[in-house]
Prohibitin (Spathaspora passalidarum), 282 residues
Amino acid sequence: MSQRIADLISKIAVPVGLTFFLGQSAIYDVPGGKRAVIFDRLSGVKTDVIGEGTHFLIPWLQKAVIFDVRTKPKTISTTTGSKDLQNVSLTLRVLTRPEVRQLPKIYQSLGLDYDERVLPAIGNEILKSIVAQFDAAELITQREVVSARIRQELSRRANEFNIQLEDVSITHMTFGREFTKAVEQKQIAQQDAERSKYLVEKAEQEKKAAIIRAEGEAESADAVSKALAKSGDGLLMIRRLEASKQIAETLARSPNITYLPNGKGGDGEEGSKNSLLLNIGR
């Protein structure tokens, strides 16, 4: 009895296992952000592009090739010469993705690593041709124009290979040692020129200020002379009295100054004389 059961299980197990294996081989999944292309051993690459989800194929006879159709970054670097024969090192960052409808053609002509086969080659070609049209100084001052020209030409060439460029930007740009040194020397010379210009302008302003000050003093002296001529010696006497008053106040505040009367008192001439100030400090 047990032998019959074992024979029955062995007879069932083989077909069931084979059926399960074939069923698993006939099902494939296409994840999100990807597409599939079917390769048939008899007819070659089929023209249909399979979308996301679970799909069926004929085991062994057909194979699903999965493409990532999401936008991917790619870096392209090159060293070339400018129009004025200066060495320039450029680095581009491009965002690329394949043309979904042309995936069968891309697989036939380029394979899964289509971006590695195409972008470095056409990127170096475009960079060298565009950079050669600008001087080194223009590459710095007209960077947006250079970037736009590179984007336009690179997009045109990439479309020939059914590759779409979402964005192209220059992330790094350096020049040779000689050009960098020349730029530094030019900047130093410009700074020295600006400093010299500032000193000249400062001297001119000081000269004008001195002239204005002298003119003011001359006008003031002229006004004083006219006042003296008009009022006589009265103004001078007032100035003398004010000066004497200031001197007396200064001496009065000094601890080393004493006051000794010189006159004999009364209303006579001797009493009207100025007092005598003597310094008794040591």
